[in-house]
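User: I'm writing a tutorial on reading structure tokens. Could you give me a worked example: one chain, its sequence, then its tokens, then a sentence or two explaining what the tokens reveal?
Assistant: Sure. Here is the example chain.
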Amino acid sequence: MICNHILGTTHHGTYKKVIDVPFEQHELKEHSIRRIARDGVELEIDVTEDMQEGDILAETESYVYAIKIVVPKPPKENTDPEMRVKHYL
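And here are its predicted structure tokens:
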């Protein structure tokens, strides 16, 4: 699905089901990017406006695709038992 401009925002309410399109905070500044929505639909985004959470990128008969900011999980610490043991001597 191609998105050339922002259609609106979900902050004022919508009568259609909202499908999240996950973005990290730094990706909002990019104006040409491809993302995959939570339902598996690929969106090709090429906009000139600044994007923010809740912006509607695309619309179908029963769904709207809106930006959702996600925070990536930090990498897990080493779970190797030998590496977790503290050696005092």
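What the tokens reveal: The two ends are 61 Å apart (CA to CA). DSSP finds one helix and seven strands in the chain.
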